[in-house]
Amino acid sequence: MTHKKIFTVVVLLVSLASCKKTFIDRPSLDGATLDNYYNTAEEVRGLTSTLYGLPWTGYENRAMDAIGDVMAGNEYTGGGDDPPFINFSFSATSVRIADAWKVFYKIGGWTSEYIFALEQKKSMGGDASFIDPAIAECRFFRGTIYFFIARIWGDAPIITQPGKTALEGNFNIPKYLKADVLRFAKEELELAEAGLPESDPEAGRLTKYSAKGMLAKLYLYNKDYDNAKAKAWEVMQSGNYDLFQDYAGMFMSSANNNNIESLFSIQHQLTGNPWGSGNQKNPDRGPANMQTAEASMWELYIPSMDILEAYEPGDLRRKWSVMEHGWSRPDWKPQRDNSPAYNAFMANGYVYDTIQVDTEGGQKNSTRSNIAKYVVGPGKAYGGESVIGMNTGINTMMLRYADVLLIYAEAVLGTNTSTTDAEALKAFNKVRTRAQLPSKNSITLDDILHERRVEFAFEGDYWFDIQRQGFDKAKQIIEAQNRGTFGDPQYVTFTEKYMHLPIPAGEILQDPELADDKSAVPYY
Fold it and tell me: How far apart are CA 88 and CA 92, in angstroms?
């Protein structure tokens, strides 16, 4: 999706002097704006286009890995901020937890103020034909972020009037029950479904089916199998989506942005100064032996030993998702100044080699592997696509059609031990067929969870699959994982307090009541 011109008067972001809570965050939208703008579809779509990229940065970059994959046992990591997610020793002072919180409540604040402004504009005679779909876009984003909030923190604040709250100066916002936060998310997504168009001429824009797919995911999380099945089926029957046959290419080239499998993606671009608008997973995942003058690589997140053991023999998703000894890309030809041995080793294309000397092109980290997803290569000058330091232009897929297919299969299974339902098997096996794995004639919950794990590895989703099984099953899964390194297996003890993350310490400092596990109240 091409990002429209953003009118400064419309989206100038301000920190209110009287506002100390990070989740009371809103853009300044004054009366003059309503008089002078939102008069055309382009102006209104320019407003909502701001929700697709920049606001997600603090979660998408690193917090998404730490919460969705490190904590889930799919990734191993070093540094100072992430290892606590390996052994469940994180606290309310965690940088990653604070970053995720800020992102979600910022998006919540922006969408709430956008909805308020657009509804005002409509009451002043604004054209509902393009204002109503924009409001529905906002509701999709607001519903989606509260779905994340409920899953990550459980009981949590719900803020729908950040401007009013800030002006009144009352920041003692209560925590609401997790069930009510999920209900709020569901209602927002239902409104989004009702208001979004069947299709959109601009690639990457939300449609009615984006909302249906996210609703299916939420219903499955709530174990509302009938509704999860119905919504997934509506997406499947639409004919608008399919599996993209180049699985590896989805995650390694921006040329495949907004492909037929994507229902909702964070949109990225590399024009001008890409800070905040570019995808920054390339350096966090890329192997050190691929670093060039154009592309930074520091491999903060690497595959865990446990995820490597999870792939079935013959599953092509392993080489499509993971770089290991022998993995190569002939079109990528990284070169370095004053490094003749390295340059000779890479002359015929990039090679992942754990035997070669490090200084001469070898690559050997603590799990002998690197993540391939969202690594687009060493840069345009070296046979890849454009990279500007930390930034690439590849979108991050947040909901894809493969998820819808597996949601459908699991919803049909429901509370049964297994299923041989023809449509469920068709959906499930469609995902396996792309990976060139044999079809199954009967599937269980463990079959589906395994398939979800390897299909969506390194996409920030597996933690939520573990969590929604309940504590006993989550404990069984996590304590069976090898969360160590090559030659040094490590196992952890998992306790129920880690089923949800703590509210950031900075928020508790402003409102100590948020730290009280028994302080949550009903929203409805």
Answer: 12
Give the count of beta carbons closer than 10 Å to the beta carbon of residue 314.
Answer: 10
- The H-or-E segment that residue 149 falls in is helix 128-153
pLDDT digits (tens, 9 = 90+) for 229-261: 999 999 999 999 999 999 999 999 999 999 999
For residues 340 and 343, give the distance between their C-alpha atoms in angstroms, rounded to a whole number.
5
Residue type, 105: Y
| Residue 520 amino acid letter | A
Distances (CA, A) of 198 to 78, 385, 437: 44, 33, 34
Q: Which among 245, 285, 301, 282 has a CA at the least distance from the CA of 393?
A: 282
The H or E element spanning position 399 is: strand 396-400
pLDDT digits (tens, 9 = 90+) for 104-143: 999 999 999 999 999 999 999 999 999 999 999 999 999 9
Measured torsion, CA atoms of residues 14, 16, 20, 26, in degrees rounded to the nearest 10: -50
Asked whether residue 20 carries a pLDDT value surpassing 80, the answer given is no
Tell the burial category of 340 from Cβ atoms under 10 Å away from its Cβ (0-12, 13-18, 19+).
Answer: exposed
Q: Which residue has the tokens 């009280």?
A: 516
pTM of the model: 0.94
Q: How far is CA 73 from the centre of its chain?
A: 17
Chain centroid to Cα 177, Å, comes to: 24
Question: Which letter, b or e, does each residue of 484-501 get, where b requires 16 or more Cβ atoms within 10 Å of its Cβ?
Answer: bbeeeeeebebeeebebb
How far apart are the C-alpha atoms of 514 and 75, rounded to whole Å? 30
Q: Report the C-alpha gap between 465 and 229 in whole angstroms.
A: 17
Structural domains in the chain plus CATH codes? 1-196+478-524 (1.25.40.390), 197-267+395-460 (1.25.40.390), 281-392 (no CATH)
Whether residue 6 has pLDDT greater than 80: no
Beta strands in 217-369 (DSSP E): 262-266, 301-303, 322-323, 328-329, 350-351
Using one digit for the tens of pLDDT, what is the confidence trace for 289-338? 999 999 999 999 999 999 999 999 999 999 999 999 999 999 999 999 99
